[in-house]
Amino acid sequence: MRLSRFFLPVLKETPSEAQIVSHRLMLRAGLIRQEAAGIYAWLPLGFRVLKKIEQIVREEMNRAGAIELLMPTLQLADLWRESGRYDAYGPEMLRILDRHERELLYGPTNEEMITEIFRSSVRSYKDLPKNLYHIQWKFRDEQRPRFGVMRGREFLMKDAYSFDVDEAGARHSYNQMFVAYLRTFGRMGLKAIPMRAETGPIGGDLSHEFIVLAETGESGVFCDRRVLDLPIPGEDVDYDGDLSPVIEQWTNLYAATEDVHEPARYERETRPEDRLQTRGIEVGQVFYFGDKYSKPMKALITGPDGVERPAQMGSYGVGVSRLLGAIIEASHDDKGIVWPDAVAPFGVGIVNLRPGDGAVDAACAQAYAALSKAGLDPLLDDTDERVGAKFAVMDLIGLPWQLIIGPKGLADGVVELKRRSSGDKQSLPLAEALKVLGA
Ligand code: ATP
Ligand code: MG
User: Fold this and answer.
1) Is 255 in the pocket of ligand 1 (CB under 6 A)?
2) Is the CB of 158 under 6 A from ligand 1?
3) Which of 106, 113, 347, 384 is disulfide-compatible with 139, CB 3.0–4.6 A?
């Protein structure tokens, strides 16, 4: 992409309404624009990152055996009456009337709808297990939307729903999602710690929240800091095998949100030097809730013994849009965002220091072609901005690499290659620089 043809409305001023750094940087770098309280337009740069994050989530769900579908954002109120949640959900639910005065709602989550889809066709234990997911916009009329995409009203969520014959099967499905979450967040460069958690309006008796530690997070957390060094399962993890050793390793060390924190147990199970009391951002949550929906909604399965029982269910959410905020909270400096390679909107920024200079333009064109061919998705700054302003924008938008090409360097046969995360710069011939980048 050429910057001169792109749409990148960066802000010169720091927006005063933004209280935390990720929100400020997302507005300044032109990733999002607020259209109403807690409702954002995803500008091209932000949209690219959103899609990258979504794709990592999708790949890890698929690897774990979940199957993607897409449910609508609007749901019938009557469906929610079947589970009893239409009245229970309260003012966070956006309720809508259509022209026929039929009651609809903008889905805050999809347990009821997936249960309805499931029960319409699945009857036998032979068809189980199944894990169905979608990546879809949700609406929750949050009392205090704030911190940008971190607590929006409209937000993008991945939600998966597992169906099993019995509790043992359901626990295996839970473990699969647990491991998939470790891998998903790890691939984004995040350390997300699974913590024992309250189940809230989703219900059930077993739940973990995956939390990225950050002072600006909304959840208070208590954990054993050694949990930060645990290994993440590789992509060859056997999802059909016994995953409980991984789960045990990750749940043996104390880690709990403030809602379920047990001070006496914390003192007993942790050494004083390992205690970490801080705050964090919830990027995902997994629940096992048995027959909470399948029973009232009559999603019944005939077992091998010929007896019908409600399916055993779990649900598993990831805050796809919230993740942009969480990643920026975890990875930025005073100049701007520092995107981890896996989610960067472009792989490398090429800075043309003198557009119109034949040799510089030619070298930039050569670099652009080679990097594009190698799939590195370059962003070429071919604008007439001041050099200082170009550097500031490149640092602000946080692409992993900057390839800086100007007349002085070219006269000496070199370009400059800068790694955004370390700030390290090296001068080297263009061909060498392209090799370092993998082109
Ligand atoms: P929270 O406690 O932050 O309100 P929640 O526990 O109600 O979230 P879940 O029902 O577990 O949310 O939803 C799954 C995921 O969706 C959460 O882990 C979070 O990452 C994300 N999420 C929930 N609410 C919001 C929101 N208002 N804005 C952005 N992401 C959200
Ligand atoms: Mg939650």
Assistant:
1) no
2) no
3) 106
